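Team,

Forwarding the record for the chain on the shared tracking sheet. I've put the sequence and predicted structure together so nobody has to dig through attachments.
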Amino acid sequence: MSHTLTFVDACTQSHFHAMSLIHALGWRDTYRGHVPDDYLDREVTDTRWVPYFQEDYETGRCHGLLLYQGDAPVSCITYGPARVGPSPRQSSLVQFDSRGYEGWGEIVSFYTHPQHRGQGYGGLLFERAVQRLREMGHRDAFVFVLRENLAARRFYARHGFAWDGTHADIPFPPDTMCVDLRYTKRLM
């Protein structure tokens, strides 16, 4: 396999399927024990996010970016303007209150294939997305991270992001509440 690294803007069904698979693997690996197992088993399918990535591409709501090592997608990220309101990727119950963050950029989702973690791929992709948010004119950016995900929190801190004291409560049926912390960074 080639070790050539290539950034690819997600724009085809193949890209959307690769991103959805990486997301599903990341969810199953990262959120087990924090999100109800029956929710993960029932809802987090390999193709769950394909229609959302396609819609994001078609509407320009946010942008998808993949990092390939040769022909293999190893990491993916979505980024764009800060979200306000329900998130179709979770449920209509989820609200991201971004009042006070108007004009900010957001890393909406970010996962590295579990078999490719620890090789620097995620950092390369993350920095490219942050650079693109800056180029889009966002002076500041944020990313939400599960409070208990200490590895991700350390990753974001290494990239200059810090918890700003705010959070979003994310309900998962039947009775689980996850807390996502908002990590922020000044871009300009």
